[in-house]
Design a protein that fits this description.
With 112 residues, this protein is mostly helical. Helix content is 51%, strand content 0%. Bound molecules: heme C.
Length: 112
């Protein structure tokens, strides 16, 4: 094996290990008992549609959401329109009520 092949092998191995570590993170994480049915519903939708990129609100493929003090209407805009890698969620996928449930759920994080 020449030096170049060796280098490429090392870089690839490092990359694959990093990917494997990401996958070993817990897929689901119950952070708290939701206080209202609205928050509970928001949690359910978040787990189904957002958790994979924002695991427990932490950074995954998406960025960390916990420390984000963005007002709810901005969050709703972001969810509806997407940004960069984050897909847009249209009305057929997340209803207006569900959208409000999700942001209530995300706001509830601050209190726990
Ligand atoms: C495919 C991965 C993916 C999914 C699914 C996803 N997001 Fe994101 N999200 C991202 C990425 C990446 C960003 C950062 C976008 C950027 O700034 O370019 C982001 C950014 C955000 C932001 C903005 C944070 C800030 O400070 O700008 C919010 C809020 C957010 N996501 C909420 C959600 C919610 C709620 C859901 C589920 C309905 C969701 N995301 C689903 C990847 C994802």
């Amino acid at each position: 094996m020449n030096r170049k092949t060796l280098l490429i092998t090392f870089v690839l191995a490092g990359f694959l290990t990093a990917c494997a570590m990401r996958r070993s993170e817990p897929a689901k994480q119950k952070m708290f008992e939701p206080a209202t049915s609205q928050i509970a519903n928001g949690e359910k939708i978040f787990m189904a549609k957002c958790q994979k990129c924002h695991p427990g609100g932490e950074a995954g493929l998406g960025i960390g959401l916990n420390p984000v003090p963005a007002p709810k209407f901005l969050k709703r805009f972001q969810i509806r329109h997407g940004l960069g890698v984050m897909p847009a969620f249209k009305k057929e996928e997340i209803t207006r009520q569900e959208l409000h449930d999700i942001t209530s759920y995300m706001s509830a994080w601050k209190h726990y």
